[in-house]
Amino acid sequence: MASYTASFAPSGGLHPTLHLSIHPGALAAPSSCTLYALVDVPRGLIADRYQLVQLQRDGRLGARGEADGAALVHVGEADLEAPVWRARGARVLVRLGDEGSGRVDDEGDGRARELPERVDVEVPLHLRYQEPVERRWEGDVRADVTQVEVEWPHVFYACDRGTASPRSSTSSSAQQTPACPPARPPPLKLSAPTGVLADLPLVEGVTAAAVWACFAYLCWTAAGAYRRGRSRAERDKRA
């Protein structure tokens, strides 16, 4: 039976990586069917389309080769700097095999390459700036860490119209056929740090002090260079 798992790498930090491990099993798909994964990216996370396209072209994300508009599709929020309260969600569609990479069922007469026993996919994501909170603690509970939920990804076959479904030998006009059972586990969760408004005066004070210290150092360095240049010019005149 086909199955797949989804998880985040434990040491992802502010740049988590979604890992998909797909086991096509004995599921048969006609040669005109292609395996895809669809990831719903919530507004609390960033999916950098340029990074994803480059990974796909390098063969490190889904099917190897040039992005052709179907191998990798990114729709939704594209602003990489927007905070969570000004961002929208996004969707990333990844083709996991070349077109016609499905298995051939017993009644099919086309030729297709066998899918591997396991397909591993890693989708890099990035945490957005989360909405700040008033204080670091609410009673005995930390309030400066929020939870970002990511829906369980969809994995499915996309088939040409009129192609027999992988689950049935009868003809089907459906364009998408689930590769795995439709029931999905609860959403994945990530812990995201947030700013604390109570720390704002301290942050502003330290920032202002650092800026003034750097400015004073630059002025002192410039004055020293001017004095040295002037002294050198006077020595040259006396010589």
Automatic annotation (TrEMBL):
Residues 163-178 have a biased composition (Low complexity). Required for proper folding and/or the stability of a subset of proteins in the endoplasmic reticulum. Component of glycosylphosphatidylinositol-mannosyltransferase 1 which transfers the first of the 4 mannoses in the GPI-anchor precursors during GPI-anchor biosynthesis. Probably acts by stabilizing the mannosyltransferase GPI14. InterPro entries: PIG-X/PBN1, PIGX. Residues 163-187 are annotated as: Disordered. This is Protein PBN1. One of its GO terms (cellular component) is endoplasmic reticulum membrane. It is found in: Endoplasmic reticulum membrane. Keywords: Endoplasmic reticulum, Glycoprotein, GPI-anchor biosynthesis, Membrane, Transmembrane, Transmembrane helix. The chain crosses the membrane at residues 206-226. The keyword Membrane applies. The keyword Hydrolase does not apply. It is a single-pass membrane protein.
